[in-house]
Write a structure and sequence with these properties.
CATH class: Alpha Beta
Organism: Stephania cephalantha
Largest sheet: 6 strands, mixed
Number of strands: 6
CATH topology: Aminopeptidase
Order of helices and strands: EHHEEEHEHHE
Number of domains: 1
Helix content: 25-40%
CATH superfamily: Gcn5-related N-acetyltransferase (GNAT)
CATH architecture: 3-Layer(aba) Sandwich
Distance between the termini: 14 Å
Strand order of the largest sheet: 1-2-3-4-5-6
Domain N-acetyltransferase: 8-155
Structural class: alpha+beta
Subcellular location: Nucleus
Shape: globular
Protein name: histone acetyltransferase
Family: Belongs to the acetyltransferase family. GCN5 subfamily.
Bound molecules: acetyl coenzyme *A
Length: 162
């Protein structure tokens, strides 16, 4: 099992993983237009943390780090159907938090969670209360109806992964 973080940087191998992840999102997030998924996953401002097992993408999280604002917006999060509820979603989120803190120097995540994923995000430390100052995020993330805005504070010291 391997966790990697890639951006569409023109490297063939990275592109192959990103296409695999895009296909998982397209299946697992049927309410999202496929073109929108492709656009964000392939966008150079977005990064994707992925779980890879036996040389196959099992799932991932695509997010946009707003470096100057020190927060990240999670756009998509999914684990392939037959690998859900095995703990991969939790480990993935922990890798994301560690990477976002140590590489991007972010302090918070925001996401519009689907109704049925709110329970998962709560278990990952997200809340419906938004503590982050509005002027740090307003105008950066777009309003999206059909989702609930949730926030997670990244601990400055906690080791999220071994
Ligand atoms: N609702 C409530 N609780 C959940 C859900 C859910 N939809 N999914 C998982 N959990 C719980 C698990 O029971 C587990 O609880 P436990 O720690 O008490 O045992 C905990 O959350 C973590 O479970 P994992 O096994 O780590 O989660 P998994 O690998 O299944 O990944 C995920 C969770 C990503 C939500 C996955 O189920 C999935 O891909 N679902 C379909 C797509 C989806 O809804 N994605 C999120 C949309 S919102 C967005 O993308 C911004």
């Amino acid at each position: 099992l391997k966790f990697v973080c890639f951006v569409n940087d023109g490297v063939d191998e990275h592109m192959i993983w990103l296409v695999g992840l895009k296909n998982i999102f397209a299946r697992q997030l049927p309410n999202m237009p496929k073109e929108y998924i492709v656009r964000l996953v392939m966008d150079r401002c977005h990064k994707s943390v992925m779980v890879i097992r036996n040389n196959q993408v099992v799932g991932g999280i695509t997010y946009r780090p707003y470096i100057s604002q020190k927060f990240g917006e999670i756009a998509f999060c999914a684990i392939t159907a037959d690998e859900q509820v095995k703990g991969y979603g939790t480990r993935l989120m922990n890798h994301l938090k560690q990477h976002a803190r140590d590489v991007d120097h972010l302090t918070h995540f925001l996401t519009y969670a689907d109704n049925n994923a709110v329970g998962y995000f709560i278990k990952q430390g997200f809340t419906k209360e938004i503590d982050l100052d509005k002027d740090r995020w307003q105008g950066y993330i777009k309003d999206y109806d059909g989702g609930i805005l949730m926030e997670c504070k990244i601990d400055p010291k906690l080791p999220y992964i071994d």
